[in-house]
Write a structure and sequence with these properties.
Elements: H1 17-25, E1 29-37, E2 52-53, E3 59-64, E4 71-74, E5 85-95, E6 101-108, E7 122-129, E8 133-140, E9 143-152, E10 163-170, E11 173-178, E12 181-187, E13 195-201, E14 206-219
Antiparallel strand pairs: 1-14, 2-3, 3-14, 4-13, 5-10, 5-14, 6-7, 6-13, 7-8, 8-9, 10-11, 11-12
Amino acid sequence: MTSSALPTHGRLARAYSAEVAELLVNPTAAVQLLLDERFSPGGQAWTGGHAREDGSGASGYRLTVERSRELLTVCPPIGTLRRDVVVSAAFRKLDGPPGGTYGLIVRDPGAAVGGGGTASNRFYAARVSDRGEIGVWRRESDHWVDLVPWMTSTAVHQGPDTNVLTLEVVGARLTFVVNGVVVATARDAALDSGGVGVCVGGPGNDVLLRHFTVHSVGQA
């Protein structure tokens, strides 16, 4: 795997003075690249589908929510479930009704180890909407627990423009970054570790996942 081309923030950013200070006093702290997925056209995707190109020639993993459903979740095979991670992805809306959403999943305790698949019914999610909104939640069975309710953010590119999302979870702190801007922080200790993935919301929402990376933050 090669180094990620996606911008990094939170634990991986030099501007995070508190995290840099921790690294200086704790030399065993380490950041490790676990996954760098670029979805080459025709390659095997996480759940048995295939990567493809959109109309502009850009390659990615196409994720479409069925008209009868509200949410689609997909988790890649990364092996051991993790506690502290930095997950980044580049998304672009292809089609679907206005108001569709997409985002990142962390600490899914029910995620399958090794083979990937869909998320379970408990996880953290940070999402954006194609109307320029952001939010952070904990999913509990069939409902969302607000950590940061929907709010407008000028950092979000609306409509079909690409958005690069990063979600860092370290301890009880979650930091959500959109296109290089920290848009939300939250604290919640309900979920301790788990798998990672992506989610797409809204019946008929059609999204291209163009790049996905996972870094673990922990002991060397």
